[in-house]
Design brief:
The structure is a single chain. This protein is 48% helix and 10% strand. By secondary structure, it is an alpha/beta fold. The strands form 2 sheets. It has a 7-stranded mixed β-sheet with strand order 1-9-8-4-7-5-6, with helices on both faces. A two-stranded antiparallel sheet has the order 2-3. It is globular, with a radius of gyration of 21 Å.
């Protein structure tokens, strides 16, 4: 059964629109939810009813060679329905929320120009929030600066770079643990490129957002989701997840500090292989995935969305009915 938490009924949700001078309506709907909640299945079912293309909203699916541990859509699924923002880059490369917003906005326009509906599907809530709320205007990533910072960290350690950040940007340093390599690197990168602390950009010169209708799959009973998470991790292990991580390690250009390798599951598998003991991997991987799902649900509670209980017996039909209302509202706008 579904419930509308936006203050109206599904049919009252407006069509997606760009803000600013370009007010061209865009036909797009977001499908969000914690891992293992059934987002991909709902999107594929929607393709049986409407002309849709899927835009992945997942920070791990952008990486090539990370297939099993990310539950990447199969070749058959991708052949049946066009998917975007999958297999974009190597695991050594960086992909930011700002890059996602730029790519997603471009793709929505292209998909609409083909007379189709864009379904933005995934669980990286930061990406959804950036797309809806807009982003602070900050400099793009600079590969040379990042390489230099990584080299320094290899010699001095990230806690030393965190101490440097505390001197130039105490507000940002105060909210980051000394081992948060990715965010420490970004904060120092911004300071080196602009001479300004990262915190000074917050709330200023925001890029415009999109009024994206969001359908959220959320469980009424967390135990149902926990069981799904365990079953999914078991299926990944059976499909060769550990061998996939072994192959990534064998490349020689990745480390536990590489952002791609800090993805849930990959981090735990890498550590288990380092320790030479795979025994605790299942328990650790499932626990980390449950923590991820908890964070995803926390993000969702702060976002306007229409909720479908993904553990209800009628969840598939309820999800399609909610989508039908959102799509019909856009068609009428």
């Amino acid at each position: 059964m579904s419930g509308d938490l936006t203050g109206g009924v599904p049919g009252s949700v407006p069509a997606v629109a760009r803000t600013g001078a370009d007010a061209t309506p865009l036909r797009a709907v977001g499908i969000a939810g914690p891992t293992a909640s059934g987002k991909s299945a709902l999107a594929l079912a929607a393709a049986q009813h409407w002309p849709v293309e899927i835009i992945s909203v997942d920070s791990a699916l952008v990486y090539r060679g990370m297939d099993i541990g990310t539950a990447k859509p199969s070749a058959a699924e991708r052949a049946a329905v066009p998917h975007h923002l999958i297999d974009l880059i190597e695991p050594t490369q960086a992909y930011s929320a700002a890059q996602f917003v730029a790519d997603a906005q471009r793709l929505i326009g292209e998909i609409n120009a083909r007379g189709r509906i864009a379904l933005l599907v995934g669980g990286t809530m930061l990406y959804f929030k950036a797309l809806v709320d807009g982003l602070d205007a900050m400099p793009a990533a600079d590969a040379e600066v990042r390489i230099a910072l990584d080299a320094r960290a290899a010699l001095e350690g990230w806690p030393a770079l965190h101490a440097e950040l505390a001197r130039v940007d105490p507000r940002t340093a105060a909210r980051l643990p000394p081992g948060d390599a990715q965010r420490i690197q970004r904060a120092l990168e911004v300071f080196q490129l602009t001479g300004r602390p990262l915190s000074s950009f917050h709330g200023q010169q925001r890029t415009p957002g999109l009024a994206l209708p969001l359908l959220a799959l959320e469980p009424a009973d967390r135990a149902w989701l926990h069981a799904r998470i365990a079953a999914r991790f078991d299926a990944m292990l059976a499909a060769g997840f550990v061998d996939e991580v072994r192959a990534l390690r064998a490349r020689g250009d990745l480390s536990p500090e590489t952002p791609a390798m800090r993805s849930v599951g990959y981090r735990q598998a890498w550590a288990a292989l380092d320790a030479g003991d795979l025994t605790p991997l299942r328990e650790q991987g499932i626990a980390a995935t449950r923590q991820l799902a908890k964070r995803q649900l926390t993000w969702l509670r702060g976002m306007a969305r229409t909720v479908v209980a993904c553990d209800a017996p009628d969840a598939p039909a309820a999800g399609l009915a909610a989508l039908r209302g959102l799509i019909a509202a856009q068609a009428a706008a």
